[in-house]
Write a structure and sequence with these properties.
Layout lengths: L3 H11 L3 H25 L12 H10 L7 H11 L5 H8 L1 H11 L14 H33 L8 H14 L6 H17 L7 H8 L9 H17 L3 H11 L11 H10 L22 H10 L7
Helix pairs in contact: 1-2, 2-3, 2-4, 2-7, 3-7, 6-14, 7-11, 8-9, 8-10, 12-13
């Protein structure tokens, strides 16, 4: 669906309102990804970036914040249905469900089997749905953050300071990998390429497509495993107000050996989070470290890291 009119036509043809929701979900996810990419592309100093600061939830509210209580179950149903499709955005949303489901199993929070029979009043059910979607968005932010962080190192050509060049670079990188794309992605690429070639036909920026196709530049990436775990677990850091000592203890337990020197002192890890990963604990009151290195949420972290799937590359 390339436009709002396409979405309405699909709804009318199938007699199914889902396709309009799906169009809006695509727009929402696209905006969140673009916002994260902009932070990396336009702010070269990581400590100036605002990562995992509620972007997913704010974007969701812009699109679906108008939904009344009686409409919200339909929105939630559309979100779950969207994850059943075989494309990058659907997979991204699907991957963010897993850590939230682990939280439910460990603590009974958010939607899941343990909430059946406990929450019975309509207002409570809707409130639980909204809290669950907000948490889903926080885990989505962590997935998107690592995706962009990975691109920053492996395909930096895609993070040009110029947003139009970023768009064209994405076309070039995907063209280089065209043979490995799904049929859906190939169809999307063809449409986007044709539309962009017309839009940029008189612009020197169009050369960015070819440049990105041939680009081999990468950035040195010293600690990909550490970056993956810390970025992935940041929603737990924020929710349970982990100290950096807590984070160091948890990461040391779940990270495959050998551990980098950054896990020797909590001060080094704190500086790394800010100066390399763009993660800061703004607004969090001083926390109290767990004496046994197993802060609240440790079980969730352990299970997530044991079953974490490889991150998306683009």
């Amino acid at each position: 669906m390339k436009s709002f009119e396409d979405a309405k036509a699909a709804c009318a043809k199938a007699q199914d309102p889902f396709y309009l929701d799906a169009f809006m979900i695509e727009a929402w996810l696209g905006d969140v990804v673009l916002e994260a990419a902009t932070e990396y592309a336009e702010k070269k100093n990581a400590k100036n970036r605002a990562m995992q600061c509620g972007q997913g939830w704010r974007g969701f509210l812009k699109v679906f914040g108008h939904a009344q209580d009686e409409e919200f179950p339909q929105v939630l149903q559309s979100l779950y249905r969207f994850t059943e499709f075989q494309d990058v955005q659907s997979l991204m949303l699907l991957k963010a469900i897993f850590p939230m489901s682990v939280e439910h199993e460990c603590f009974g929070d958010f939607l899941g089997p343990k909430s059946i029979g406990v929450v019975t009043k309509p207002k409570e059910i809707i409130s639980l749905m909204r809290r669950s979607v907000e948490r889903w968005c926080e885990w989505l932010d962590s997935q998107i953050h690592f995706n962009i962080h990975e691109i920053w190192h492996l395909a930096p050509v895609m993070l040009d300071p110029d947003p139009e060049k970023r768009e064209l670079a994405a076309l070039g990188v995907n063209q280089r990998a065209f043979g490995h794309l799904s049929d859906f992605s190939k169809s999307w690429w063809q449409w986007h390429h044709d539309e962009a070639s017309e839009r940029f036909k008189d612009s020197p920026k169009w050369k960015m497509v070819g440049k990105a196709m041939a680009a081999q530049e990468t950035k040195i990436w010293n600690y990909p495993d550490l970056d993956n775990v810390v970025i992935l677990l940041w929603p737990l850091v924020k929710r349970h107000n982990w100290t950096y000592r807590d984070l160091k203890a948890v990461v040391s337990r779940v990270l495959p050996a050998p551990h980098p020197y950054l896990l020797e002192r909590e001060q080094d890890l704190a500086a790394y989070c800010t100066n390399v990963l763009g993660l800061q604990k703004h607004g969090c009151p001083p926390g109290k470290s767990s004496p046994d290195g197993r802060p609240t949420g440790y079980e969730v972290a352990e299970r997530i890291c044991q079953r974490e799937e490889p991150p998306l590359s683009s």
